[in-house]
Each structure stands twice: as C-alpha cells, then as structure tokens.
Design brief:
mainly alpha, 11 helices
C-alpha cells in the first residue's frame, strides 16, 4: 500500500492524473489490508482526481462511497466529511446546479461547526465556506444573504488573521456593484487592492486581476 501511495503522489505531482486515478483504483481493488480510514481517503482522492479531469459524475460516485464509509464508522475527525461536502458543492457549482451547490456548502458549514476539530482549523474552514456560500448566494441573486456570508467570512479572517481577505473584499465589492451601491463597492475594491498588496506583494496574478476588474467597474 505504501508503494502504491508513493506512486500515486509522484504521478499527481507530474500531472499524470489519469494514471494516478488508475493506481488508486488498483490499490482499492487489490489491497485487502486497507483500513476503513484508508478506503475513505482513497475514494475521496479519486473524487478529487476525477473532478480535476472534468468527469464530474464519476467524481460524485466516489464522494458517495467516501461519505458512506464515513457514516458507517465512528471517526473522531470529521474533516473528511467537510472536504467531501465542499468538493461536491464545487462540482455542482461548475455544473450550474446552484441550489445543490448551496445545499452542500451549508452541510459543510454545519459539519465543521459541529465537529471536534481543533479550533483554528474549524475557524479557517468556516471562513472559507462562508466565502463559498456568499458566491453561490450572489449567483442566485440573493444579495442580502451573499453580503451576510461575506461579512461572516471577513470577520473570522480578520479575527484570526487568515489569508485570502483580498478575495472576500473583492466579492463584497462585486456584490455592492450589483445592487448599485457605488460608494461601498469602491470602498471594498480599494480594500481588496491594499490587502492583496499586503498579502502577495505588488506583483501578483491576484492583484492584476483585481486591478482589471476595478478598472472595468470604473468604466
């Protein structure tokens, strides 16, 4: 099993995702000594690989299996479940099924808040999930809930000094622009720029994208 995990890691790093998926599938079928935790991890990783390959229905089947393994065992750590729900939400978002995406984002939030994870992990995951929820709410034109989710995310990021504040500020700017509140949109675009410079320096892809979006907004 260790040899196969090593092979899988090497293939992923090389970008050979189809071969990586094949190596995990073989391991799952042939190794009878795998623990339930290892089976869960393999199915979850297969879901991630097929998601990256754009084969979303196959990815969802592996997430179903991973969730079933989790539900049938008493794992102390529920971070795998949070990860499964988050990845499902991302797939449904890409597929355009925003209500499903929102359903699994909310499930992930409830799971991470109800788990026994270390406090810092819990708060960081929650801040990221609130950002994801806000994006989906915005896509559904539910701007009040979008703004509420973004503000919950930035509150946690500021409290614990988590990275990624520039992205939350950018989404606040976008949302205020959509509802025609130009003064607050302008405020958050500028906060996004200054935060991106603080986190990533004056030369980064993130900062370039924020400048482009702010320029389009001003036009």
């Amino acid at each position: 099993a260790r040899i196969d995990f090593a092979t899988y890691t090497r293939l992923v790093k090389a970008g050979r995702l189809i071969e990586a998926a094949s190596s995990l599938s073989v391991l799952l079928k042939q190794d009878t000594t795998l623990t339930e935790a290892q089976k869960l991890a393999i199915n979850n990783n297969l879901g991630i690989l097929y998601k990256k390959l754009g084969q979303y229905d196959i990815a969802l089947k592996y997430y179903d299996t991973a969730e079933s393994i989790y539900n049938n065992n008493s794992f102390a750590d529920n971070s795998f479940l949070v990860n499964i729900f988050s990845n499902r939400a991302n797939i449904y978002s890409v597929k355009g099924d925003l209500n499903k995406a929102l359903e699994y984002t909310e499930k992930a939030i409830r799971s991470v808040q109800g788990g026994n994870n270390a406090s810092l992990f819990k708060q960081q995951s929650t801040s990221s999930l609130y950002l994801s929820a806000g994006i989906v709410y915005s896509q559904l034109n539910n701007f009040d809930l979008a703004l509420s989710s973004f503000k919950k995310s930035i509150l946690l990021k500021n409290k614990y000094n988590f990275p990624g504040k520039d992205i939350v500020y950018l989404n606040l700017a976008r949302t205020y622009a959509k509802i025609g509140n130009n003064s607050l949109s302008d405020k958050y675009f500028n906060l996004s720029i200054s935060q991106s410079e603080a986190e990533n320096g004056s030369f980064s892809v993130n900062l370039a994208n924020i400048f482009l979006e702010y320029g389009n907004y001003l036009m």
